Amino acid sequence: MIRYKKDTNNIATLILDMKNRPKNLINHEMVDAFMPVLEQLKKEKNRNELRGVIITSNKRNFLEGGDLEYLYRADDPQEVLELIHHLKKLFRAIENPGVPVVSAINGSALSTGFEMALATHHRIVLDNPKIRLGLPEVNLGLIPGGGGIIRLMWLLGIERAYEILALGRVYRPKEALKEEIIDDIACDERELMDKAREWILTTKEGRRPWDQEDMDISFGTADDAEMTSKIRRLNIQLVKENQFHFPAKHSILNILAEGSKVDFDTASEIESRYYTEVVCSETAKNKIKAFYFDHNAIMSGENRPKGFGKFRPKKIGVIGAGLMGSGIATSCAVKGLEVVLKDVSKVIAQRGKQHISNNLQEMLERNEIGEDERASILKKVYTTEKARDFDTCDLVIEAVFENANLKQKVTQEAENYMDEFSFVGSNTLSIPISQLAEVSQKPENYVGLHFFPPAHRVPLVEIVKGKKTSDETIARAFDFVKAIDKIPIIVSDNWGFYAARVQNTFLLESITMLSEGYAPALIENLGLQAGMPRGGLSMADELGLAMVLRYEEQADEHYGTKYVQHPAVEVLNKMIQELDRKGKTSSKGFYDYEEKSRQLWLELKTHFPSHQKDYDRQEVIERFLFAQVIEAGWCLQEGVIRTEAAANLGSIYGWGFPATKGGVIQYIFDYGKEAFLTRCKDFEERFGQRFKVPSFLKRLIEIY
User: Which of 23, 62, 132, 666 could disulfide-link to 662, CB 3.0 to 4.6 Å?
Assistant: First the structure.
């Protein structure tokens, strides 16, 4: 577990090496193994036989975070509090042996693993771009609990510590050095250890600033008027952006504010109590369920067709150099794939390459890539106007304008030069894959690959199986999506596929409320309070009102005599046909759009008078969310999407269903199973068939 070595300078090296694991993980076993080692070090110090301590690793990582399965199950606050106290006792022992302690970090150090590194007096990291460092707990609805918040506050100040913690960013070694969360980097492992020994030999004292008299927190505390003002602004911004939907971020800010006013150990106890509250919250359980359990279920290939070898793409073709095509190309090139980017002319294709360059610049500014990487990534992109340049591509993705004839034309051109082992993916938003594949030379090699804008940022891809798409092509598409580090969800070739179909129910419910007399601004604000990224009217404008209506018309075709027209259809017809307001692309929809601004159309209240005064805020929010949950249930029942895990993550990444609820299916269990069914029955009686619960969801509720 922990190997001990000592050199002639009385420098002890502790080598982390967990048995029967590919990586080092800080759990109760590691904590228990550390304690007797630290006791031995204290004895050696008392005998003047210890000059310093180096902690390093014999694994491909240094040390990573805690046991998420335990945290997901944890529901006893006292047990959680005792566990975090035990961990903090270890970290305090590490930083108080009376001699200098150095972390020689030769692999990734994340979450609790990085908190332990923060407890050492000096951090030196191997300059390997694959190494990741940081405290990303907030991405799972959690917060650091091992003292990391308080230590960062002392080292960097409240404002910078909050920025790092609330964003949940992870850093490469050079970026971590720039952010001052580590102290040095080394070019190889030998230099790493040499620098660690040198620092110990030139450092007399092993005490942290918070354990020394007359030392203050960097840049002030919450007792200072200027810092109090900054904290207030951060809180206002947090509420504005998140509508209280991310309690972990609020907890971080509270810990920093409260902890800055007291001594280190008291501040650490404040952190422990907030940590316990966050761990036991439903928000944390929901996010762990989605981003850990559901994510692992999908990425493990539970829905990937069996019996096919792993596809390892090397060269990808992209047709269409617009924002979507260049975003797809960026995603591929960043992961080391060669890209052939084609458009109708070399000049337009080059514009697409400039889009890619802009995307990479954004990634550089977010510390996701280095400057040297940016240049090498761009070299992987070849621009062309000739379809014959696809002759050596493993896959060609069509990302042109949403027009069936155009998509079929460019596909035929590409297939003329593609070999028998390559396949075609269409990034269509609404056109059936089976229809597009009708002109394909090999429809079994034709698949939908629906990326979400911006394609280089959104980590989700819908893999759409057409009527003739082979299982082998689906398996290869799945492997490709994983290769570019995105989440593949397999969906059937149904109207709207999965994401657009379910998203549309939120838009339709928002539009319906206009006809019911709700004020437009109220509809939008309650959409935000529900946890959606934007109001439904804004999202409808963005998509285009004709497309919103088109999906509902496709539902009519799909269900035939069983179809019941959604009340939003009348509003949409009036907006499009009578008022000639079609959405953002025409600069007028529910909103008026100018160059860089927008506002709700002032005449909306004239055409859809607002008379709802005595309304139930929670009921409106629930209508927004229930509509999506029920439609997702129909998608599962009809085989549009295959698993609850895919439904959950698809809803969060595909259109922005509240991550704090864990996704559309997890929302049922967060709300309460019986309460959900009762509320649906009430909504069905009052608002109609669209709130009828599919039998699939009823069976699912019974199973769980």
Answer: 666
Total Cβ atoms within 10 A of residue 190: 9
Residue 636, judged by CB atoms within 10 A of its CB (0-12, 13-18, 19+), counts as buried
Strand partners, 592: 588, 599
Nearest to 553 by CA among 655, 430, 641: 430
What region, left, alpha or beta, does residue 284 occupy, with left being phi > 0 and alpha being psi -120 to 50 degrees?
Answer: alpha
Classify 368 as helix, strand or coil. Answer: coil
Task: Give yes or no for a contact between 629 and 685, defined as CB atoms under 8 angstroms apart.
Answer: no
Share of the chain above pLDDT 70, in %: 100
User: What is the biggest distance separating any 2 CA atoms in the chain, rounded to whole angstroms?
Assistant: 91
Q: What is the pTM of this model?
A: 0.92
- List of residues 6+ apart from 451 with CB closer than 8 A: 324, 327, 328, 331, 399, 427, 458, 461
272 pLDDT tier (thresholds 50, 70, 90): very high
Residue type, 489: I
What SS3 state is found at 519?
coil
| Sequential DSSP letters for 659-685 | GGGTSTTHHHHHH-HHHHHHHHHHHHH
Instruction: Report the run of H or E that residue 126 belongs to, with start and end.
Output: strand 122-126
- Give the DSSP H/E element, type plus range, for residue 11: strand 11-16
- The pLDDT tens digits of the residues spanning 481-502 come to 999 999 999 999 988 999 999 9
Nearest of 29, 31, 5, 1 to residue 16 by alpha carbon? 1
Pairing of strands 598-600, 591-593: antiparallel
Whether 356 and 331 have beta carbons less than 8 Å apart is answered as no
- What average pLDDT score do residues 126-151 get? 95
Report pLDDT for 372: 84
Measured at the CA of 211, the angle between CA 207 and CA 216, to 5 degrees, comes to 115
Distance, CA of 280 to CA of 289 (rounded, Å): 13
How far apart (Å, rounded) are the C-alpha atoms in residues 232 and 223?
12
pLDDT recorded at residue 258: 97
Q: Token pair of 338, please?
A: 């060669």
Rounded to the nearest 5°, which phi and psi values hold at 490? Answer: -95, 125
Closest CA relative to residue 287, chosen from 71, 457, 535: 71
Q: For residue 451, which of 443, 461, 441, 442 has the smallest C-alpha distance? A: 461
Residue 461 sits at φ, ψ, to 5 deg, of -140, 130
Identify which of 674, 668, 673, 693 has the alpha carbon closest to the alpha carbon of residue 683: 693
Beta bridge partners of 57: 16
d(CA 164, CA 156): 10
Sole residue written with tokens 């008392």: 46
Q: What pLDDT, in 10s, does the model give residues 387-429?
A: 999 999 999 999 999 999 999 999 999 999 999 899 999 999 8
Phi and psi at 63, nearest 5°, equal -165, 135
